[in-house]
Amino acid sequence: MDLETAVRERLPILSILLTNSAMAIEMPVIPAATEKFDSTAISGNYTELAEALGLYAERVKQPQQIVPSIRRGIEQTQAGRPVLLEFITAKETELPYID
Asked: Residue 65 contacts by C-beta under 8 Å, 6 or more apart in sequence?
């Protein structure tokens, strides 16, 4: 409900949500529960939820849309409106390790 609070209090913040429609990193650790109950599957259209709450929102599906959407989001926050940018990502199951 942080999004609703941003609208109600007129907080011009830009939030970026990475959506992979799964708790993908959990898939290898709980294979039986994933197979039997689809326990790692999560879904939802957070862009539609944000719009319903009164935010400016975009759902970004292509990498070439990232920079333009961030620019539009910044413009909206500068105009005093809270923003949600939902980036649709792949279901990655491995953690990147940084040396």
From this structure: none
Radius of gyration of the chain from its Cα atoms, rounded to whole angstroms: 16
Per-residue pLDDT of the chain (99 residues; tens, 9 = 90+): 899 999 999 999 999 998 876 655 565 666 676 676 665 666 779 999 999 999 999 999 999 999 999 999 999 999 999 999 999 987 766 666 666
Structure token pair of residue 51: 């719009």
Q: What angle do CA 49, 4, 75 make, to 5 degrees?
A: 80
Question: CA-to-CA distance for 32 and 21, rounded, in angstroms?
Answer: 19
Tokens of 29: 């650790």
Please report how many Cα atoms fall inside a 13 Å half-sphere around the Cα of residue 64, on the Cβ side. Answer: 0
Parallel/antiparallel/unpaired status of strands 14-19 and 56-60: unpaired
- The per-residue pLDDT for 78 is 98
